[in-house]
Amino acid sequence: MPRKALEGLTESMFYVLMAFNQKPMCGIDVAAFIDQKTKGQLQIGPATLYTILGKFESEKYIRETEVVGRKRTYHITKIGIAAYQTEIIRLRRCLEDAESENSTEEKL
């Protein structure tokens, strides 16, 4: 069965939605949020970030709210919030599955 558009977000996509869930932001603010939130463990380059922003805008997860020169500010939509919450539920299930298995330490 074919997957729906953006079903199962990548780590970068998840953190981009997390950023927009806080407040409207431009791309530079999103990258800074992700760097700070992950303590530098996830660094998102401009090409990846703007590809994600384009996909999210076309899927109506975000909408552009302001343009000042080259700076574009985006706001998360209800569809984007729903996608973010769905991903949180999916990730929680993954963690629950992992925690229900015997830990590696017990197998040693």
If you had to describe this structure to a student in words, what would you say it looks like?
The chain has 108 residues and is of the alpha+beta class. It has a single domain, classed as Arc Repressor Mutant, subunit A (Orthogonal Bundle). Helix content is 58%, strand content 14%. The protein has 5 helices and 3 strands. It has helices at 11-22, 27-37, 46-58, 78-100, 104-107; strands spanning 25-26, 62-68, 71-76. It has a 3-stranded antiparallel β-sheet with strand order 1-3-2. Helix 1 crosses helix 2 (27-37) and helix 1 crosses helix 4 (78-100). The radius of gyration is 16 Å and the shape is globular. The mean pLDDT is 90.
Helix-strand blueprint:
Layout: H1 11-22, E1 25-26, H2 27-37, H3 46-58, E2 62-68, E3 71-76, H4 78-100, H5 104-107
Antiparallel strand pairs: 1-3, 2-3
C-alpha end-to-end distance: 39 Å
Give the number of domains.
Answer: 1
Helix and strand sequence: HEHHEEHH
Q: Could you give the order of strands across the largest sheet?
A: 1-3-2
Give the tally of β-strands.
3
Structural class category? alpha+beta
Principal-axes shape call: globular
Query: What would you say the CATH architecture is?
Result: Orthogonal Bundle
Task: Output the keywords.
single chain, 108 residues, alpha+beta, Arc Repressor Mutant, subunit A, 3-stranded antiparallel sheet, 5 helices, 58% helix, 14% strand
